[in-house]
Prior knowledge:
This protein is 16% helix and 36% strand. With 180 residues, the protein is an alpha/beta fold.
Amino acid sequence: EEIVDGERRHKFDALIDFSTDLWSIATRAAMQGRGILIPLGRKYKVIIDKSVSAPVCVYGEGNTKNAKVMPIPRQDRANILVTSYLDEDYNYEERTISEEDVQTGENPIVKNLPILVGPARETEVRRHLKYLLRQNRYIDHMIQFEAGMDSIAIEVGDVFAFQSQANDLALSGKIYRING
Length: 180
């Protein structure tokens, strides 16, 4: 249990008073805690996004093929986020707040996020918005490649490194999806 600014980093309480499917609520709640749910047969695994000291695996021309690096255009990455939440410190009243990360020379790109699931504290919601803004600022490309089963030693959520002498690049990132 991690403590930030004198309180638990993530806390989740909820009373669902609207109609929706359980999977939607579970995935939204996991995202608020910097996690994703991965179905594994009849069970689920929770992957938490947190810093690591070293990549699990290194990929390059020797163990991959058909590598593509695709930039994520800046106009697709919001620098002002707005959301609503039920504030537990104000008798669960719905409040709306925003956080911004507009750098000099940038145009404001506003994105309204859905209301957060369950009651929350303003400090927790602000940390969540700042986390999402950092992702929008620093995750600026996607990489796609094919690798044989014998070179796949990682799973969703693991950090990897990718190097290419032919394309003069060195990248790192997290695995978000595995096909096949």
